């Protein structure tokens, strides 16, 4: 079987992609010129999460108007359609924009317009997940949540990203409890190889009771956590290409071990403009490094739909389409 063609055409679900991390250089330069702002161009060469974030946030200054946010999300969704993505759950970082004077409605208005247009014109379904920046205060996160409430219908859940060091889940327990009571689903980054990774993952699961974990592969070090994640059916949104940039390797061995032990592992692209791989490239990189079978690649996509935040009717239709694709490809 031609694995590249099989993965390329497989109907795919992406659960961990930051819209601001899809800002490709060409669009960045065009928007910066249009807005008359000086923006440092990302140079790469990151060695960890902190050094990546140091290039990531300054580049966002190119994003100013509602049209800019629309164009960013639209460019991602066009790319996603070209990779046979049928559903995407999209992180966005409002505080990275409101903190420099861009109003919340400008950000979400642009993103929402792209989501609606993609459903209509590309057949790609997408939902937005609001991420709080964990290196800012819990009060700032709470006021951002309050600002988001009028837009509840456009936001499926909340997440937590940015620098994990010194910013454990407990800091945001009250914000997440309030978000839950407002009807949002909950996820949280538990980044790779952080100081206190295991304690933070346990806190996210036991204290905050998240519905999903972004990254989180460090659970391999703790069999009890693996059991807990498996028993609860918690999804891990793994990003192998990203891992290879912010740590020494892509953690293919760990990801494959968790997948093979029955954990609902999924594969996504994280910040594809910075790490150079969209979801197809992430799946292929993992498949090559961990010797995944076509059936395991289908399982990753089955997991993604099962732990997605889609309405059941939509999820079941996409699961049926995935099974039909897999059956057809195997007999072809
Ligand atoms: N981790 C933390 N913050 C981020 C990430 C990530 O993977 N991507 C963009 N912001
Ligand atoms: Zn991420």
Keywords:
16 helices, TIM Barrel, alpha/beta, 332 residues, binds hypoxanthine, five-stranded parallel sheet
Domain unit count: 1
Specify the CATH homologous superfamily: Metal-dependent hydrolases
Radius of gyration: 19 Å
The CATH architecture term is Alpha-Beta Barrel
Can you offer a commentary on this structure?
This protein is α/β, with parallel strands linked by helices and 332 residues long. The chain has one domain: Metal-dependent hydrolases (TIM Barrel, Alpha-Beta Barrel). The protein has 16 helices and nine strands. It has helices at 3-9, 25-35, 49-59, 66-82, 95-98, 104-121, 138-148, 173-181, 197-206, 223-232, 240-246, 252-260, 272-275, 279-290, 294-306, 312-331; strands at residues 12-18, 85-92, 125-133, 155-161, 185-186, 189-190, 212-215, 235-238, 264-267. The chain has a five-stranded parallel β-sheet. Strands 6-7-8-9 form a four-stranded parallel β-sheet. Helix 4 (66-82) runs parallel beside helix 6 (104-121) and helix 7 runs parallel beside helix 8 (173-181). The protein is globular and about 50 Å long. Bound molecules: hypoxanthine and zinc ion. Zinc ion (ZN) binds next to strand 1. The site of hypoxanthine has 10 residues, from loops.
